[in-house]
Amino acid sequence: MFGMIPFERHDDNMFDMFDNFQKKFFNDSNAKLPAFRTDIRDQGDKFLLEAELPGFQKEEISLELKEGILTGELRSGEQLVEQTIAARFNTSRSPVREAIKQLTGDGLVINITNKGTFVKTPTIAELHDIQEMRQVLEVFAVKKTIQHLSDSAKSELMRLRQRIIDSRDLHDPNLYLDLERSTWIAIIRMTNNSYVIDTYCKLYAIVTNFSKSVIPHMEPSFEHSVEERIAIIDALLGGDTDTAVNITERHLQNSTRILCEALTHLQSAKK
Questions:
Q1: What is the pLDDT of residues 172-213, one digit of tens each?
Q2: What does the pLDDT look like over 103-136, one tens digit per residue?
Q3: CA dihedral 103, 104, 105, 108 (to 10 degrees)
Q4: Is 97 in contact with 236 (CB distance < 8 Å)?
Q5: Residue 53 has pLDDT above 70, yes or no
Q6: What span, in angstroms and rounded, lies between the C-alpha atoms of 132 and 256?
């Protein structure tokens, strides 16, 4: 499990052997150590000791890796090496392995037999599927949010609107993508539907990572998308459901086209 050298079988008491190992391993220190899980496996000709040493838990590692995927620090198609991640978090490979399993279940990484684990790069078909599901969820969120728009929700939308306006002259694609994510995550959270929020966040994590990985292949100008986002917020604040839905659908159609063109360009560049 941790690449430790197995003990050879001999006639000493098993518990004495473990106690001696612990003293030698920790230099017989009197310092108190946090409790950690250990296991001893009998493999016939030898015993194998497995120890989950103190360090980051799988949930913490999973969150850190997910954040790396969302910010683009971990690029689409990048390999995740257990040993490297374990060294980064100063922990064993066991919680890293569990964290990667969790990310695999979320659809953020993919395991390729005999090659390793990689940050997922969606196919054209998967991009279309994700964008279709986004449209379902975003239209639902727009309709529900307008019906129950609280004063605090209005204030949050107004703050986001101002941030978007302030960013227009910066022409920063990464900032554009971050504000796009912040806007839609905020609107989705206003539904107060945990299943909608969870599903959307998983889908959007894939889109965000892929988008940040293909920025060089995307349209150089995002002005039209910025204006669409402002118009969606204005429609929400004005209680105009039809306009909000129409612009949301058009916004997603434009987004899908840009992403698919970028993926096609990326695939052609690799050939």
A1: 878 888 898 899 999 999 999 999 999 998 888 888 888 877
A2: 888 888 889 988 999 988 888 898 899 999 999 9
A3: 60
A4: no
A5: no
A6: 9
pTM (two decimals): 0.69
Q: What CA–CA distance (Å, rounded) separates 208 from 32? A: 44
| Structure letter (DSSP) for residue 192 | -
Alpha carbons within 13 A on the beta-carbon side of 146: 19
Q: Tokens at residue 149, please?
A: 């728009």
Nearest alpha carbon to residue 51 among 85, 94, 81, 97: 94
Amino acid at residue number 125: A
CA distances to 88, 161, 169, 200 from 213, rounded to whole Å, are 22, 26, 23, 20
Residue 84, sorted as left (phi over 0), alpha (psi -120 to 50) or beta, turns out to be: alpha
Residues in the chain: 271
Give the whole-angstrom CA distance, residue 140 versus residue 122.
Answer: 24
Give the residue among 133, 147, 127, 132 at the shortest CA–CA distance from 200. Answer: 133
Domains in the chain: ranges and CATH? 7-51 (no CATH), 58-119 (1.10.10.10), 124-270 (1.20.120.530)
CA atoms within a 13 Å half-sphere pointing along the CA-CB vector of 222: 26
Pick the closest to residue 201 from 135, 106, 93 (CA basis).
Answer: 106
Amino acid found at 142: V
